[in-house]
Fold each of these.
Amino acid sequence: MTAETLTTVFEAGRGNRAVELLAQTTFAMRADARFVERQDDMTAAVFLAEEEPAPMAVDALDRVLGLIDAAETLDGQAETAMRGRDGLGAEIAALPSPVREAALKAMAEHHRWSFAGLGIQRLSLFADQGEQAELLRIEPGHGVADHDHEDEELTLVLTGAYHDGHAAYRPGDVSVARPGFVHTPKAEPGEVCYVLLAYRGAPRFKGVFGLAQRAFGFPTPLSRRP
């Protein structure tokens, strides 16, 4: 996806909690060399170019240092919160802070990881007026069956990488899928692939999975769950 397209998508999603979480996580990743280091990414420059120049405040340095301290405090709290949990604890604690905090909040509210296919687990983060956000954990070599979409779906790669039959995506990449776009996301060999989804509606599976979906209503959109 080009930087201009990404800008358009995020602008269109203002007021949408799921898209805002995805945008915040994207920006956090692109400011952190642990997650992404790339020479061809012009997104940050595009956003900076759109900003109006402003004089630096007298307390700018103190405020920046305060933000750094606050971020380090959140990192420490996340590590403490996940200590003693199952094997996913360390993985969750290492995710970019916006999605990590959303995951911790969801788990504190008793949202559970659920089975989403062989080698795939999903955690519902929230559903807000039909807008949904969820975290997927995909083991290398595993993936989601062929599917179309009822509405727009944004996918941000957090760790690992995947190929959907059209293109390859790695940490920091955002995929936009709309109705009529059929793909088959599959995690690449190597690191476990975590992705953040922001979407409306439910995927429309093809083949055997499609028959099961139509017969049993799986996966049921979160907005329709009791």
Amino acid sequence: MRRLRITVSYDGTDYHGWQVQPELPTIQGVIEAVLAEIEGAQVKVEGSGRTDAGVHALEQVAAFSLTNPIPPPNLEKAMNRLLPRDIRVLTLEEAPENFHPRFDATAKTYEYRILRAAICSPFERRYVHHHPYPLNEARIVELAKTLEGEHDFTAFAAADDRDAMGHSKVRRIFESSAWREGDRLIYRVRGSGFLKHMVRNIVGVLLEAGKGNVFDLRAHLQPDSKIPSGPTAPARGLFMIGVEYDPHMRPVDPR
């Protein structure tokens, strides 16, 4: 049995998120079906995180185990030949047998794209949140920085089926920034990990602040905060940009 690591990119528009769901198309489900065809047996694929329905990824990391001895370059080509065109394997390499894409990750980066132009091109509509209305962008840029550091993000988290396990909702944000780029307002966040809908809820609150409806973002970060999560920004504007790992965790030499 060999462990393999892939970097995959996908347009999440037509999928119900990453995680397998009965009778629904998901990224994980499609990749597992393709690998089962190659392996001739069921294959479990583990991802670095669970992206929501409609969320995209530039570089999502996943891993799986196979008995098939097909060399990585040939397996990469075989997967891309069988996968739909809105899912692509960018890289494929041997990995240590104990590699886990979620538990071994040291940081993840997400980006949210807001189109500020009066008209949204039909070719952009699947990949931006169109918000042409008045907005204090300078306020959003200023408040984005206040999220950096270690905080309790309960007020930015949607209800999750794992809540019953009592896990902490404290996360460390290494970078949180917003800027204008042409007709787009970009929000980018890099952190140790993220809760369900956390980035979309952050963007939703930042937009409310830009409208003048939120004045104290720090109140959302208090451990005893009773502020409900949201509002949740639409999924289509969110991209998983990349996942980071310990640089000493090198791919396995297959020779």
